Amino acid sequence: MWAVLLYGPLLAVQASHANIARATAQPYQTEPGEIAVGAAGMPFEWITPDTGDTDLLSEPLRPPFVRQPPQSDSASPQAQQFADHRIVQGELNLNWLLFWSLIGGATLLATLVLMVFFRWHRILRQEIERRHQAEQEARRLAMSDSLTGLANRSGFFQRFREAISLADRQQHELGLLWLDLDKFKPVNESYGHPAGDQLLKALADRLLSVCRESDMVARMGGDEFALLIINPESEQALRQVAERLVNQLIAPVEITAAEEVSIGVSIGIAIYPEHGISSTILLENADKALYEAKRMGGNRYRIYNASTATISRPLDLLTEDD
Predict the structure, then answer these.
(1) What's the domain range around 276?
(2) Rounded Cα distance, 269 and 176, in Å
(3) Domain CATH code at residue 199
(4) How many other CB atoms are found less than 10 A from the CB of residue 134?
(5) Same structural domain for residues 178 and 303?
(6) How do residues 84-122 score in pLDDT, each as one tens digit?
(7) Rg of the chain over CA atoms, in angstroms?
(8) Is residue 165 part of a domain?
């Protein structure tokens, strides 16, 4: 295609030049006293200088045909007129060929420019999408726990602040469940950290099975987890969730082909806005309820009660690291 656009007009221009050259060349002497006049593919005339008579040939003349020189008076008027017509027609053909050559060149240039532009646009779009995906993946990894795949501490606090803001606008409640595994340390000491990691992953799956899609489960570090219940139906609904968590996490977990372990969980519950309107106060009160459950022997839950709550640990341990 490109070869036709590039070389086709050039070859046509050369052919037109050749036609004009043949029409304006010197006479072709066939025999003494005779001159060949005509056009390619057309019958030829034999012009006799003595008489001016012409004879039509039935076959076209093979050698290049030319017109009789203008200085000779013996050429027929028909031959001269035909040669002049050939010259004018050749010049018109040349002009048209030059015009279409320019059009073809401009079209080719525009096509090349468009091809380069669309190629560049596609590469740029792919690069933007690649960087966007890389940023999303980096953000996801920064907000996720590498062991369990749950949200990490940073991801939880970001979602927690957003949930409080939304609950304030829509005037609904939030339930914060703070979980701490009972008897987890002996598992690490007896079976090693790989067994402890396997136990944490199994328990994380159980936590997810209890929650709704709109809720959030996060590993806050070590053997601590947090569960954020969005718009719970009632306090009783939070109690039911806590009971299911206690029953799920106390069930035995297989850590080796021949070993199973059972641990428990203590849960503290705080409700927005009843027990606080900020993330800091809610976390503090949920932690107080958690240690109240541990003080009572563990493997149970407690809802925050200001009359029985006590400070269990420094507040900075409950807030976001950064």
Answers:
(1) 153-317
(2) 6
(3) 3.30.70.270
(4) 10
(5) yes
(6) 555 555 566 666 777 777 887 888 888 888 888 888 888
(7) 48
(8) yes
Cβ 14 vs Cβ 94: under 8 Å: no
Considering the domain boundaries, does residue 79 fall inside one? yes
Task: Tell me: pLDDT of 313 over 90.
Answer: no
Q: Which residue has the higher pLDDT, 210 or 8?
A: 210
Q: Is there a single domain that holds both residue 29 and residue 175?
A: no
Structure-block tokens of residue 261: 């372990």
Count how many domains the chain has. 2
Written as six digits, the tokens of 119 are 């190629």
pLDDT tens, 206-264?
999 998 888 999 999 889 999 999 999 999 999 999 999 999 999 999 887 778 899 99
Cα(59)–Cα(219) distance, integer angstroms: 101
Of the candidates 112, 137, 167, which is a domain's last residue? 112
**Token pair for residue 37?**
């006049």
CA pair distance 69, 75, nearest whole angstrom: 8
Tokens 């040349």 map to which residue?
Answer: 94
Which amino acid is it at 30? T
322 is a catalytic site residue: no
Task: Give the CA distances from residue 83 to residues 59, 94, 112, 121, 241, in Å, rounded to whole numbers and listed in that order.
Answer: 19, 17, 43, 56, 106
**Do residues 82 and 207 both lie within one domain?**
no
What phi, psi does 208 have (nearest 5°)? -65, -35
> Do residues 177 and 312 both lie within one domain?
yes
Asked, for residue 108, whether it belongs to a domain, the answer is yes
DSSP annotation of 151: B
How far, in Å, CA of 103 to CA of 97, rounded? Answer: 10
CA quadruple 109, 112, 118, 122: dihedral positive or negative? negative
| Domain final residue pick, 112, 134, 163 | 112
Instruction: Name the burial class of residue 270, with classes exposed (0-12), middle (13-18) and buried (19+) by CB atoms within 10 angstroms of its CB.
Output: buried
For residue 10, what are its two tokens? 């050039």
Q: Is residue 124 part of a domain?
A: no
Q: What mean pLDDT value characterizes the chain?
A: 76
Tokens in use for 112? 């090349």
Q: What share of the chain is helix, strand, coil (3-state, %, to 5)?
A: 50, 15, 30
Per the residue annotation, which of 145, 180, 215, 223 is the catalytic one?
223
